[in-house]
Amino acid sequence: MKILVLNGPNLNMLGIREPDIYGKSTYKDLVEMIESHCSSKGIEVQCLQSNHEGTLVDYIQQAYFDKVDGIVINPGAYTHTSVALLDALKAVQIPTVEVHISAVNEREDFRQISYVSYIAKKTIMGKGFDGYLEAIDYLNN
Fold it and tell me: Which amino acids are annotated catalytic?
């Protein structure tokens, strides 16, 4: 099993950005937790982050050529704005789980629409970093 974990804009600022919403753990902590979890289950994982929409699209497209089995994506703010990410995920047809650290559905009105959810097999929100592990386990079953 080969999984790509993608994180969108501002997730590199975990631990600094709004710790009351996202917690005090860092992006490095998140990556280490994911890598440890995957290692214990024999899953090959690659974790990537970008603040740039086109780079995230490139990563999704490359996943097709790399024969990735599943994608876990936290699109960050692109959740609510990026048809490009949706189209890239549609193009590659790789099973995808959308993850949000916070309970996006309980936040501002503009955060209620997720373009990625149109293609995602599952959306996990409000479970902190553990949501990523749940998404990985879902794809691994």
Answer: 22, 100
Statement: residue 3 has pLDDT above 80: yes
Mean pLDDT for all residues in the chain: 94
C-alpha separations of 86 from 2, 73, 138 in Å: 21, 11, 20
pLDDT over threshold 70, residue 111: no
Looking at the predicted structure, is the pLDDT value of residue 105 above 80? no
